[in-house]
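Case study B.
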Amino acid sequence: MNNAGARAPAILIVDDDEGHAILARASLEAAGLSNSIQHFRDGQSVLDFFFPAGPGPHAVRGGAYLMLLDIRMPKVDGVEVLRRLKADPELRNLPIIALTTADDAREVERCHALGCDVYLQKPVDYDKFTEAIRRLGLFMTLLLIPPAKKS
Amino acid sequence: MRTTVKELQDIKAALDQHSIVAITDASGCITYVNDKFCSISKYSRRELMGKDHRIINSGYHPKAFFHGIWSTIASGRTWHGEIRNRAKDGSTYWVDTTIYACMGPAGEPTQYVAIRTDITQRKADEAQLQRYAEDLAEKNKELEAIVNTLSHDLRSPLINVQGFGKQLTCACERIQLAFSAVPDRAVPASAVRQPLEVAIPQALKFINAGVSRMDALLAGLLRFSRLGREALTIEQLDMDAMVADAFSAMRFQLDAAKADVRAGPLPAGFGDKVQTSQVLGNLIDNALKYRHPDRAPRIVVDGHLEDGQAVYSVADNGVGIAPEHQAKAFEIFHRLDPDGPPGEGLGLTIARRVLERQKGRIWVESAGEGGCTFHFSLPSTEPQPLPMP
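Model:
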């Protein structure tokens, strides 16, 4: 799980629906992406990943990440995750693709207002989904969490 | 000349039959009232004579309203408008009013003739219509939210059905390819093991779960929509008996969980017995279902009267609901913890709908960990029957 220094960002799939996460992973792999992929089952676990609280895997300083974020999740939802990440000076540039199951204009607006980079309606066809991600060229974006500051 | 006087008398008699009439002198003191004025204001003629119209002021209109009337009629113009007055017994009534200024030779009003029509019923109807309109707007918003949630919740399993259906197709193609690559029956197990042992069972698992989920959602939706159409029989409810019934219906589960249940004396409320029992049962069931793993459940049902409402509470010492999740608890198909005890996320949505149809309300209070208290209210007096559904 350690991506420190690697150019290809680790892809973080945050989705409470296990099936959706498996399909997303399968289509990303089928499309030939060799990035490491991690699945988080809810908003809280991915927040714990970036804002370490207790044991469990944590984001690596200097690591590159790209997040596929489901918006509608129980408890801590995608909007809340977005809000927390965008409010953090070091994490605000993390590229995030928000995913939603239904087309909801208000939700789209809310995510854009929170500084979401790309917003995709979860397509039933995951091939199109991968294509969209590729077209957006987000994999070309290198995103690094700044290394720990030396004090 | 005689016929003219007769004619005027006839017109006045007809006017008295139709309208509320009063005449005041130039300073506003009542010099004449007809029978209709007395009957609607519930004052006798003697009580009214010599008084001004402040005697029937309901306090509803601001001072400026009456200033406006005076400045209009004092300048000799006719005033027309709607006024809410107060009768002697304190009841109020609305009158559509025309005040005519009778001008003297000096160009000053000498007296005022006020002719009024009782529009109390029309005003009440207008207010009722306004309430219906607001109600409808609220219901529309609610419906929109339900459609929104549903489209998401139905699409979610559909994505799995379609996505894993595609995986099945792929697995099938791989097996076919393995078969076509070699002479008959010599297919190596290694070529078909992955699809048969991993891909296909996984796909079937998600497809079946997705289909079941959609089925459950649609069944729940039907149940919810049926509720809104069921006729209500509003009666005075013996809540003490209903709570006792609810507890005894769940006696087995309550005993199994070693639950400590209590119910205080409850005020009577007005509602539909069957549907209100369902709400009670659901709240008690929730209190038991979401009990804390480390302590025996305690369920306390209580009630009191407040502002014409009977307010009941079902308090538990279970896992509680964090403040930020409380608003969502009543959303259709929303489940705060999908990994928690089974349920379709419909119980509280239905409880809210049932209570709203009975002019009641439901809300929750919880500090999180320590458990939660669901409150619901019902009218404590017999509600007025409404002409519209």
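Residues 126-229 of chain B form one domain. The remaining cases will be described in the next quarterly update.
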